[in-house]
Amino acid sequence: MKSSVALAAKRTQAIPRGTGRSLPAVLVFLVIACAPVGEQPDPAVEEMGTAKADIRASESKAAEEEAALWEADAEWLKAFEAKDVEGMLSFYAEDAAVFPPKAPIVSGREAIRKMLEELTANPGFELTWESVKVEIAESCDLAWVQATMVFRMQDSEGNLQEDRGKAVLVWKKQPDGSWKVVADIFNFDLPLAGAGE
After folding, report:
1. What is the CATH number of domain 45-188?
2. Span 167-182, pLDDT tens digits
3. pTM
4. 107, 132, 137, 193: which one has the fewest Cβ atoms less than 10 Å from its Cβ?
5. Share of the chain above pLDDT 90, in %
């Protein structure tokens, strides 16, 4: 029987020379070959991310403009409460038009100025409103406002008359960044004389 030492020597001689040295190189090659290739960005995913960013930016811009419009509306109301003709007029664009009930269209700031002067000359004149809805266009340069209003005026006999109504106003952003009214449309809730008879 061969000794265990002889068998061990024989096994050692059966291993090809150099195999022990090449094994690490093989392992390195396998690691490199099996390493995941860097993932390439998906254009569709990138486009979706850009679109979402654009939407967020647009929503933020619209929110800013809506806040500016609410502020302008509040300042305009203060001018009416003070019966400040120049203050009232300053919120109308140069080419603005007013559409009063049962009357022709009042076009341009000078014609609107005359209308406001006639209204404020009445000792009982008072106009207040509450804007209840604001919509900003996607372009953020046009908006419309829905409002309810209370209008008071003294009649020819000195009696104070009151009408309640509603209005739709179209605002347009100006080159200087301010908002101005380009269309002022309103009417009253009271039925027309003779209606329903």
Report:
1. 3.10.450.50
2. 999 999 999 999 999 9
3. 0.69
4. 193
5. 62
